[in-house]
Design a protein that fits this description.
mainly alpha; Ferritin; binds fe (ii) ion
Length: 194
Amino acid sequence: MLHLASTTPRSWVDRVSADLDELLLDHTHCEKKAASTALNLVFRHDATFPHLAAPLAAVAREELEHFERLLELLADRGVAFRAVTPGPYAARLLGGARSGGLARTVDTLLCAALIEARSCERMTRLAEYLPEVGLRNFYRDLLQSEARHFSLYVDMARSLPGVKDAAVEERVRELAAHEADVLANVPAAPRMHG
Ligand SMILES: [Fe+2]
Ligand SMILES: [Fe+2]
């Protein structure tokens, strides 16, 4: 359903849970970035595709709520929120987007969809395998909306005038293969996409 071209193994959870506070800090920044991405897309397209404003605003609001929940979780664990250097995953993924016009917009929305899909997949692994039951429940709760965000972004790509459903399906498959390749080649680090 998430259209990913690779599966995260349980060993990823074993690796990142050895540095759980760093993973949670990275996840906090992911939620902040997800909110910012959605809001930036509203700014970029309010003249060209104004019908995207409402679904993007809904995503931005939910991501900001997730950001707040992660900030609370960090505070509860006594972990200070601080800046972290972004990993290469998102920039490399977007490097596979076509340039110019409608194709660029489609690919930007589908890359956002795949980031949501991968986040959801990894949260599912965390919900299954993290040692702390409280954190497993936390992730079980969060991943519901990330799965919905994947569908929302794909639907936004489909809604663009002149874009055929079949073309979106094919492009999701191509970008999913690219995403799996990007993820397989990022350095191992305690990150949601590391
Ligand atoms: Fe989120
Ligand atoms: Fe999301």
